Amino acid sequence: MTSSRRYNLKSLMLQIAQDRLKQEAEDRVTERKRYMEEHCPDLSLPSGVQELQELCKKIHANIDKVDEERYDLEAKSTKGASEVEDLKFKVTDLKGMKKPALKKVRMSADQMLQALLGSKHKVNLDLRANLKQVKKEVKEEPAEAVGDWRKNIEDKAGMGGRKKMFEGAES
């Protein structure tokens, strides 16, 4: 199909759609006029009090009738909505629930037990309280070994502490 042919068909389709939209708009206008003439006749105000009272009674009767219809339709729609909800529940029961992806939650042992048993049970699971107390032994180094570091520096300086030997040989 050539591009000119495609363009021509597209323009024809748009033209037909536009004509149909205009026709639908005109049909809606004529339908509205017909409905208004049928259900809302021209208002002719009576001149006497008796006639006015009868007109008011007719209008009230129409209002009551419309209210009853509205109530019935509202009850019907709520009943339908509840049936839809029930059917949705039945469908999910038949299908089975999809399990959601669980997230990793950090929780202490106390919090887990409280979540499982409920808030009524007070369970304290302090594992450290059950452990033995171990005293740490502190090793004391002899005071002589810790002495002044500057005193022994010459002894250990150079060639693995042999500096003394050479100094002693010179003198």
Summarize the structure.
The protein contains 6 helices and no strands. It is mostly helical.
Note down, in words, how this protein is organized:
The protein is mainly alpha-helical and 171 residues long. The chain has six helices and no strands. The longest helix has 47 residues, at 49-95.
Features:
single chain, 171 residues, mainly alpha, 64% helix, 0% strand, elongated
Tell me how many strands there are: 0
| Rg (CA only) | 50 Å
Q: Judging from the principal axes of the Cα atoms, what is the shape? A: elongated
Low-confidence stretches: none
Strand content: under 5%
Helix/strand-derived category reads mainly alpha
Cα distance, first to last residue?
A: 118 Å
Q: How many DSSP helices?
A: 6
Order of helices and strands: HHHHHH
Helix content: 55-70%
Write the layout of secondary structure elements.
Elements (H helix, E strand, L loop, with lengths): L2 H37 L9 H47 L13 H9 L25 H4 L6 H4 L6 H8 L1
